[in-house]
Amino acid sequence: SGRRNWNAAKDLQRYRHHYPDLVESENQEEEEMWNLSFYKNEIRFLPQGLHIETLLESWWDNYEVLEENHSYIQWLFPLREHGMNWRAKPLTCQEIQAFRKSKEVMQRFRRAYQLMLRFYGITLINEETGELTRAENWAERFQNLNWFSHNNLRITRILKCLGEMGYEHYQVHLVKFFLTETLVKETLPNVKRSALDYFLFTIRSKQKRRELVHYAWQHFKPRGSFVWGPHEKLLKYRARSTESQLHKKDEDKQETPGKQCDDSVEKDQNRSSEEEQKAGDAADMQPKVNDEDVKEKLSECVLKGGDGEEEKEASFTQQEKDLNSETEEVQGTAENDCTKESKKRKLDANMADAKQSGPLKSPTDIENISRNLGECAI
């Protein structure tokens, strides 16, 4: 349509900022952690579900069931927000911490991820890095993805859950995979819009998100219609080298205005609440700002990691450079004039002293002195 999906942008900004408007009870007992109990194989998913071990074993490559059943996805990939299945429970911060501490639970989580990847025609070839490739039956599974758009919502949920569980590197590989298939190889035309509006902006790392936005822009056709980042910034963008990454880790900090569930995640101390209100990577949440202002600010901020003041500072810096250059030129001219005037004054003073202290020099001597002083001034 040539326009950005701003509802999606606001939703993804809320997720990246760890749901700043969400208030949770801090005194939950373990027996109330429904998602954790499900992953511990203690309860079935609701309604009319299975234990997770039974699901992971009996539904492997059972594509028809995975396509038609709509109750399991919110239990396999829970989020800190409500979904369509009212029997599923939202994820809590305490559950996230408990998930990450349990090797048994995280192993099942990775198996669930691989189950869904295979359903989509994708294979996880490196469990440590998250690297992906096409499955042998990719053509058949890609056809299913193009036919049934509700799978795009499922993929967005999976990406969000990966981020909550500490698998941000899995996120990056999955988003890159879909950008390649939709924009480069053009095998998933009906997934392209979701990949750009939703998948791309689940990445919490500003550096990785910038790299993926730039990658999408490079392969988008026609490039002039790309609306997910300001073109002037995309033209100037250069991916950071490994050395600069080591020395500039602060730029890769995650956006953290809301309550984080992982105590090990770094907090961005340099970002003020005022800046967060002014601009975000995806949406401005201020009710006082109209939609047009929001769109303009968001478009400018996609590659800048949500810092709305960065462009202004760059502009002011350039103006200061130009002003300093002009000032130096004026000062240089003024100094030359002052030098000449100073030499003339010294000549007049010397002549006055000569009158008082002794006989005047000859006209020839005076002309020589004047000529010498003139050459020095020039």
TrEMBL record:
It comes from Pelecanus crispus (Dalmatian pelican). The keyword Ribonucleoprotein does not apply. InterPro entries: OGF_rcpt, OGFr. Residues 239-378 are annotated as: Disordered. Keywords: Receptor. The lineage of its organism: Eukaryota, Metazoa, Chordata, Craniata, Vertebrata. One of its GO terms (molecular function) is opioid growth factor receptor activity. Residues 245-281, 289-299 have a biased composition (Basic and acidic residues). This is Opioid growth factor receptor. The keyword Signal does not apply. Residues 29-234 form the Opioid growth factor receptor (OGFr) conserved domain. Coiled coil: none annotated. Belongs to the opioid growth factor receptor family. One of its GO terms (cellular component) is membrane.
